[in-house]
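Progress report, Aim 2. The chain analyzed during this reporting quarter is listed below.
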Amino acid sequence: MRAVAFAYHNMGIAGLEALKKNGIGISAVFSHQDDPGENIWFGSVVDWAEKNGIPVFCPETVNTPEWIEKIRRMAPDVLFSFYFRKLLSGEILKIPVAGAYNLHGSLLPAYRGRCPVNWVLVRGEKKTGVTLHRMIDKADAGDIVGHREIWIRPEDTAVSLYGKLCAGAGELLDELLPLIKNGTAPRIPQDPERASYFEGRKPEDGKIDWSWPVERIYNLVRAVTDPYPGAFSGLRGRKMLIWWALPQCGADPDPVPGSVEIEREEVYVRAADGRLKLLDIEVNGSRMTGRLIFEYFKKKRGVILK
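Predicted structure tokens for the chain:
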């Protein structure tokens, strides 16, 4: 069986490794040029393809007549999309005789769309997973072939959870690729009544509202901490990034959201039903942890974060 793969990010590499391991030949790989404005903390699909002697292309879009014809001439039996960031046209999806499959980082039909790893953390989910599904001309809506559940730990960040999902994707593909090869892969229609869709996230979505419950604020912090843009708050006209903090539940009789409290050289910020202990912050390009945070706020008694 010969495949054309569309791949990006570490999940793209995990998918390509699974194809190679399961004896599916890869005629070509399509990927993306890295965005110079993005923090590139993940592996390169382009490098992987070149090291494995596989032709790799990074067109602005593959949905042009020229690229559609080139893919058609490759005559792939099957197509795979592993964290490729653009939808493939219906013309491309009709090319492979054995179908087109996408690997998505959630338990579909929940969390269709962009940034599912970040969104499940933002929303405080306890479980997520990876799903392999048939591709149709609507994002993440095709029949499910199979999924692998992944439990989310309270200390998970987007990076640690993403690593678990990549490992789960490899296991899932080892289970399902033999079924695709012999034509026995299941097709389970998605229930549209259970579907949810999320758009991509922007740096400004990291703004903290201190009137939120403390767990909600903590979930935002861990969802967008390094290497993502970070959760942030206003500090007397400056922007303070919170790279790590821990929630402490317990309501104050009369809380002032955003008020800073110092106890035994530890710094806390009040939320609606508790407070957040600051462990790693950045102000004006200066990163601070531990005692440095205490020394910084000791000079700013009575400050309220906005």
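Residues 126 and 209 are 23 Å apart (CA to CA). The radius of gyration is 23 Å. These observations will guide the mutagenesis work planned for the next reporting period.
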